[in-house]
Specification:
mainly alpha; 17 helices
């Protein structure tokens, strides 16, 4: 069998389409049935096996490695209700792994012309990269060039090189250019890129408490009864109305000096998982990210203590709930929360 390996940082959807093209499949289902039959999966189990897992096996990779390196699940699942050792949900054998593994929080396939030229020189082919599909970032993080979007309604049906040669591209007007605070843009970009390489989501309770501690230290209010500066007001000032209207519309509609619970009350609903994009925007406002905090790492270990305390038992009890939420495309993980805070 021909082994079609994914390229570095290639999106799973792009890898799947390359695999289909090489083997001559005409539909996702035809490809799926072939992979199931080839690897001799038992019928009951293979019917539930996500596409990402099948492609991982076909490429000689573990499902966890494939999902971490080639899907948008890591940056869309920064926090979870329960402590996990992997980016994959505990209830991995469900439609959620397919949906979350291949969903892309942008409206079209995006690419950088300089990246394509480098790919031509190094490996004579190219792939759609994850770093070009992070919401709120319309410049290539490597070359700092504005990205292009494929004009065709099925961008992943062909390699990026094909669209470049055909000229079937349209320039993207970078949303970052509308942001008043350029330092915030740089911090936000760096934090979003870091989310791509996290091996597992953080426990929401630990992450929210660390954010609350950082906010208190910076002089922001975390309680509606205390008349301090609201981080939500500062965030809106830094990102500007256009960026806010596109990615955080509820904050854009918020009156100035109005307490906004999702941001200003981050420590109150401590088990609540905020949208990934909102987490990144808040961290960029605070001039640092919680991942470098020894306190957060200590809390993560504490909450993952193999059932030795009540908190771990609570986390275990929530896993079934989390699985149901994942399976129906909503709940606390909120994949679509990378854009507009909505699950899809």
């Amino acid at each position: 069998m021909i082994i079609v390996k994914p390229l570095d940082d290639e999106l799973a959807e792009g890898h799947r389409q390359r695999h289909m093209h090489i083997f001559g499949f005409t539909s996702d289902e035809q490809q799926r049935e072939y992979l199931r039959a080839y690897y001799g999966q038992k019928k009951k189990r293979s019917e539930r096996m996500p596409d990402a897992f099948l492609l991982a096996i076909s490429a000689g990779m573990t499902p966890d490695e494939y999902v971490r390196r080639h899907t948008m699940l890591p940056p869309t699942r920064v926090a979870a209700w329960s402590s996990l050792k992997s980016v994959l949900p505990d209830t991995a054998w469900n439609i959620a792994a397919i949906k979350f593994g291949f969903a892309i929080p942008t409206s079209a396939g995006r690419l950088c012309l300089d990246c394509i030229n480098e790919d031509r020189q190094q490996q004579r082919t190219s792939g759609f990269r994850r770093i070009h599909h992070l919401p709120g970032i319309d410049y290539c993080p490597i070359h700092r060039n504005a990205l292009y979007a494929v004009s065709n309604e099925h961008p992943f049906k062909r390699m990026p090189i094909t669209w470049v040669d055909k000229g079937d591209l349209r320039p993207i007007a970078p949303i970052e250019d509308t942001v008043p605070d350029r330092d915030w843009v740089e911090r936000y970009r760096a934090i979003c890129l870091a989310t791509l390489y996290e091996p597992a989501p953080f426990l929401a309770k630990a992450l929210n408490y660390e954010l609350m501690r950082m906010m208190n230290g910076a002089g922001y209010t975390t309680d509606a009864r205390h008349p301090l500066t609201n981080l939500s007001d500062v965030l809106l000032t830094k990102i500007g109305p256009q960026w806010a209207a596109k990615f955080l519309p509820k904050i854009a509609e918020k009156p100035i000096n109005r307490y906004y619970t999702s941001v200003d009350g981050v420590g109150q609903a401590h088990w609540s998982v905020r949208p990934t994009l909102l987490y990144c925007a808040m961290w960029a406002c605070l001039d640092r990210d919680p991942w470098t905090s020894p306190r957060l790492r200590q809390q993560v270990l504490e909450y993952s203590s193999d059932g030795k305390d009540r908190r771990c038992r609570e986390a275990k009890a929530l896993r079934t709930v989390e699985g149901r939420a994942l399976a129906y495309g909503g709940g606390q993980v909120r994949l679509g929360s990378m854009e507009n805070g909505q699950a899809y």
